[in-house]
Specification:
There is one protein chain. This protein is α/β, with parallel strands linked by helices. The chain has a domain of 96 residues: NADH:ubiquinone oxidoreductase Nqo5 subunit (Beta Polymerase, domain 2), CATH 3.30.460. It is built from four helices and seven strands, in the order ααββαββββαβ. A hairpin with a 4-residue loop joins strand 4 and strand 5. It is elongated, with a radius of gyration of 18 Å. The termini are far apart.
Length: 164
């Protein structure tokens, strides 16, 4: 862990209150990322919002590390408007249990963001008020941003180039 991450106000607070939940703390190009256990994501986000003023959830997304365990990494980008400060919180999600608690109880903006992750990666958010597809058609099969999803789409021949 670099000096910037060690001196970050959120990292200091999280180390004091959630030390056993922290898996990794990194700083890269001035951005601090804290990886936490998925079971504690809501308690950690609630602390960051209510105690440290990270009052804006700017994004929720996921990364598919196909072939590795854990396969997915949920990424929460938080911003404190009063402190003009950002932090990235990550939580690993196994392929065998692709569920994590919903952050809609803390930020209304999580609603559509989590629906997008559900639609494109197939990660379920327990406690989400309206978990259904948001980008793909309701009858769409699969989750297009998973690395095992066929590039050409379902039930289509692979592109073979121009046939002239």
């Amino acid at each position: 862990m670099t000096n910037m991450a060690e001196n970050n106000r959120a990292v200091i607070g999280l180390k004091g209150k959630f030390a056993s939940s922290l898996l990794e703390i990194k700083e890269f190009r001035g951005e601090v990322t804290v990886t936490v256990k998925k079971e504690d994501i809501i308690a950690i986000c609630k602390y960051l919002k209510e105690e440290l003023g990270y009052n804006m959830l700017t994004d929720v997304t996921a990364v598919d590390y196909y072939g590795k365990a854990p396969r997915f990494m949920l990424v929460y980008n938080l911003y404190s408007i009063p402190a003009k400060d950002r932090i990235r919180i990550k939580a690993p999600v196994d392929e065998s249990d692709t569920s994590i608690a919903s952050a809609t109880c803390l930020w209304n903006s999580a609603n559509f963001l989590e629906r997008e992750v559900f639609d494109l990666f197939g990660i379920n958010f327990t406690g989400h008020p309206d978990q259904r597809r948001i980008l793909m058609a309701d009858d769409w099969v699969g989750h297009p941003l998973r690395k095992d999803y066929p590039l050409q789409g379902p039930d289509r021949e692979p592109y073979k180039g121009r046939l002239s």
